[in-house]
Amino acid sequence: MGKNYSGLVLNCYALGDVNGTNKLGGLAGYNTGDVTNCYPACEVGGTSDRGGLAGYSSFSSVYSGCFWDSQIAGSISGIGNIAPDPPGVAGKSTSEMMSLTTFISAGWDFVAEDDNGRQDIWRLCKDGVSYPGLYFEFLAADFLCPDGVDFIDFAFFADYWLKEGCSAVNDCSRSDIDFSGRVDESDLAEFSDCWLLQSSK
Fold first, then answer.
1. What total number of domains does the chain contain?
2. Which of 13, 79, 87, 141 has the most other CB atoms within 10 Å of its CB?
3. Is 9 in the same domain as 80?
4. What pTM does this model have?
5. Does residue 161 sit in the same domain as residue 102?
6. Domain span at 74
7. pLDDT digit of tens for each residue in the chain (201 aa)?
8. Does residue 87 sit within a domain?
């Protein structure tokens, strides 16, 4: 983001490097809003007001559960114009950024855990392999870890076979792939299209 004026930024990440002159951040250049459960993992160039998370931030902005890869970004703070970093902003090493514990302890809602909610917003199957991704980035039939559609996913899918009353809010734990309200042959066909494929995330 270049600028976020008083908006709420929630559940996002950025991986592309940032270059310019001033007010540059891995996630936002200029921020006067609130940011929750977000992270960037990128290099941040520039000469002034540059931060791992945001280049320039108003002091009224609220951050919660936000991280930035301090190993990649280098010797800069999380917020370019504020030192030390405000509550809710923490720089972590690359290995920490690729660890489920880092995010679970901050209240992020991940697949296969219920303590932080049941929306399954984020997913990270194996520590040290990649940064967390948003659940929707994975194949529709890739319900569970490990990544890829296999017999583990098929067993999960079979538990919901012919289940009815799936809604947009509760799509039978995402086994109602086509959102028809019922787990049936149409969903099986979509599941079969993903068989033995790996998610691109």
1. 2
2. 79
3. yes
4. 0.87
5. no
6. 3-107
7. 999 999 999 999 999 999 999 999 999 999 999 999 999 999 999 989 999 999 999 999 999 999 999 999 988 999 999 999 999 999 999 999 999 999 999 999 998 888 999 888 999 999 999 999 999 999 999 998 888 999 999 999 999 999 999 986 667 988 999 999 999 999 999 999 999 998 776
8. yes
